Amino acid sequence: MQFSALNLAPDLLRGLTACGFSELTPVQAQAIVPARRGKDLQVTAQTGTGKTAAFAIPLLQRLLDAAKPALACRPRALILTPTRELAEQIANAISSYAQFLPLKVTAIYGGAKMGGQASKLQAGLDILVSTPGRLIEHMALGNAILSDVEFVVLDEADRMLDMGFSTDVLKLLQMTSAARQTLLFSATTSPAVNELSHKILKNHQQIRVAKTNSTADTVEHVVYPVEESRKIELFEQLLAEQNWFQVLVFTSTKEQADRLLADLQKAKINAAVCHADKSQGSRRRAIADFKSAKLQVLIATEVAARGLDIQGLDYVVNFNLPYLPEDYVHRIGRTGRAGAKGQAISFVSREEEQNLERIQKLIGSTIPRVVKPGFEVSNRASLLKNISRKVLGSRSNKATATSIEISKPAAKPKAKVKKAR
């Protein structure tokens, strides 16, 4: 289906054409029409399927259909996201779609100066994109008032719940118009997401574009078994042998990210890191350098798993498997986007085998293993079996020793010697 068939405002269609939009993706085809009609939606779709346009286009069209002047501090549409990177990306995307429209888009998030953001809010706006925590801070200062909000979008709602934003989200929604339209988008579904949807949506329509918690068909998955202590060595060898370029690497902790960065820099590999201890400016520069191919490797923690949209990203490496299986879906969603091919490579130590089993159960398929010569490692099941044998052997030896000890004939009592009278 073509965007031209949606009967959109000419200047909105002009903006979409300038952005290279022609045919709707499946999530756009299913969500745009009911959203434009004012229906509340709960949408579950894989990362990288065009979800931003799926909620932004009907939102922009509805704002145009009931045009009002932009007011200071009073947005008409609110989009909540879990991370600053995603907030910035969504605001940039919507600004591109609306480049020929008289609508103002503003993004606010942590890590940037409050004063500059307050000035933008007071200058007037139509659409506000924000992280929950930063929005609450601005509301406490009177810089943002939500009573005029007619449209609410929760993007990556599952991730917001994982990050503990449930209370903040509910608090913010209570400040918006009771007659608002609400759209809830997530890459995965869970009891917590369903519970939230029933609290905030009214007579909503559910849209599931792909199998629940599935990954894109365009992504090839592979696992490299390796000892934890040899992961850096394996990564550097694969980089050299397979000529990987523009590789996004996920670690589980900031310490692991910093350690990997130090080793790559020693090996003269252009790399940068993106995690919560880095300033917003530093993170923005790292992402910009990576997108412009100045960097070969970008190392990130879970904070970057949402919101990174890098055209032509071929490789995502899980240096460590995520603790939550759902986060695997979000991480690898950075590759294989919009129909392009991608590879998801995971380094799995024996200690991470259970995490791998949970991930495979979630995505409904077994991930192929590649054993790299020189990096062979026994799997966790074998390890547990060996431990069990040792434990049982140890118990058996103790039992035998005890048995032998018990079976020793009791010492004969010494014969009493009669004393002479």
TrEMBL record:
<dbReference type="InterPro" id="IPR000629">
    <property type="entry name" value="RNA-helicase_DEAD-box_CS"/>
</dbReference>
<keyword id="KW-0067">ATP-binding</keyword>
<keyword id="KW-0378">Hydrolase</keyword>
<dbReference type="GO" id="GO:0005829">
    <property type="term" value="C:cytosol"/>
</dbReference>
<protein>
    <submittedName>
        <fullName>DEAD/DEAH box helicase</fullName>
    </submittedName>
</protein>
<feature type="short sequence motif" description="Q motif">
    <location>
        <begin position="1"/>
        <end position="29"/>
    </location>
</feature>
<dbReference type="InterPro" id="IPR001650">
    <property type="entry name" value="Helicase_C-like"/>
</dbReference>
<feature type="domain" description="Helicase C-terminal">
    <location>
        <begin position="234"/>
        <end position="378"/>
    </location>
</feature>
<dbReference type="Pfam" id="PF00270">
    <property type="entry name" value="DEAD"/>
</dbReference>
<dbReference type="InterPro" id="IPR050079">
    <property type="entry name" value="DEAD_box_RNA_helicase"/>
</dbReference>
<dbReference type="GO" id="GO:0003676">
    <property type="term" value="F:nucleic acid binding"/>
</dbReference>
<dbReference type="InterPro" id="IPR014001">
    <property type="entry name" value="Helicase_ATP-bd"/>
</dbReference>
<dbReference type="InterPro" id="IPR014014">
    <property type="entry name" value="RNA_helicase_DEAD_Q_motif"/>
</dbReference>
<dbReference type="Pfam" id="PF00271">
    <property type="entry name" value="Helicase_C"/>
</dbReference>
<comment type="similarity">
    <text>Belongs to the DEAD box helicase family.</text>
</comment>
<dbReference type="GO" id="GO:0005524">
    <property type="term" value="F:ATP binding"/>
</dbReference>
<keyword id="KW-0347">Helicase</keyword>
<dbReference type="GO" id="GO:0016787">
    <property type="term" value="F:hydrolase activity"/>
</dbReference>
<feature type="domain" description="DEAD-box RNA helicase Q">
    <location>
        <begin position="1"/>
        <end position="29"/>
    </location>
</feature>
<keyword id="KW-0547">Nucleotide-binding</keyword>
<feature type="domain" description="Helicase ATP-binding">
    <location>
        <begin position="32"/>
        <end position="207"/>
    </location>
</feature>
<dbReference type="GO" id="GO:0003724">
    <property type="term" value="F:RNA helicase activity"/>
</dbReference>
<dbReference type="InterPro" id="IPR044742">
    <property type="entry name" value="DEAD/DEAH_RhlB"/>
</dbReference>
<dbReference type="InterPro" id="IPR011545">
    <property type="entry name" value="DEAD/DEAH_box_helicase_dom"/>
</dbReference>
<dbReference type="InterPro" id="IPR027417">
    <property type="entry name" value="P-loop_NTPase"/>
</dbReference>
